[in-house]
């Protein structure tokens, strides 16, 4: 279900609650409509007539297992105290204002030589039939994304792909880079290398030079195609990943938002239009501290002479060599496990952990380990632990709430 659809459903039930507040809580609940509904019903009056109508329309029924206490789900600091909207929106266009507002990104228009950008777009259009919509689960409901995705690899016999259960739930059928994708890979790698000179490398990041030999490509066919709020999964790319994204085709708004509130204020939603041939590098910490999305567009969008309303985004990324073949399997059910980072409660914010993929894929399993990155440089090392004291964590420099919390503890 698209974020827009979820919001419409929630607006129908909680007519007194502002749209921005609904969005805020929906994001805090990782997009779960049922959790959002459950939380809100404890604070705000439910419009029961509308609720009955909405339930009939959408087939939604509140399940008691999602009625957990507010504090379990989100940091109580992030709960709105007023019904009216407090969330701001900002639309940023220039490199200067974007990088000043979000220090975790580099923005570069007209990154590729014009003919390379056009041939990349043509190459992707020739491959568009192999793109497919992702399916995923939200609160027990199977959902189909309304954008299409394909994962590409630079090497034709990539052994790593058979271990990649993260995106596909099974063996992943990867595509191969075309000529233009290879040329762009070289240019992107040079750019990331140059940018890395002015950024400190964290111990959790690979010691080797950054490579962009895996591409997750998204295709937005129409202006209504969107990508829900999310951050990229860390399981293969590891903690503090660098991801370089190239947009070609129609211009769409890339939205980003910090995941935890500052001084109890909901964070602004920052919209960045990404025209044809724009590079956006998401540096270390971006996936940890922000969520991003591509909003459906209600107004006209700027199309491209070659692709019309179609837009592709190519996200070049590197699998972390220290995590290949090392991810733990669930001791309870044998499923693969996903690497994640805690952020909702300030006490735990920054701690990395492994959670059973079964729970993500709609099976009830609470399989859990803390993540331990102490030996990431040693091949096939153990990257998990049952001891919380041995857990690896990363705290953002600008996380003042966490800094204040740590002060009170010392
Ligand atoms: Zn499990």
From TrEMBL:
Coiled coil: none
Keyword Zinc appears in the UniProt entry: yes
Pfam families: 2OG-FeII_Oxy_2 (PF13532)
Gene Ontology terms, MF aspect: dioxygenase activity; ubiquitin binding; zinc ion binding
Keyword match Zinc-finger: yes
Domain called Fe2OG dioxygenase: residue spans: 211-320
UniProt keyword annotations, A-Z: Metal-binding, Ubl conjugation pathway, Zinc, Zinc-finger
Domain GRF-type: 330-374
Any single GO BP term: DNA alkylation repair
Residues in CUE domain copies: 2-44
Name of this protein: Fe2OG dioxygenase domain-containing protein
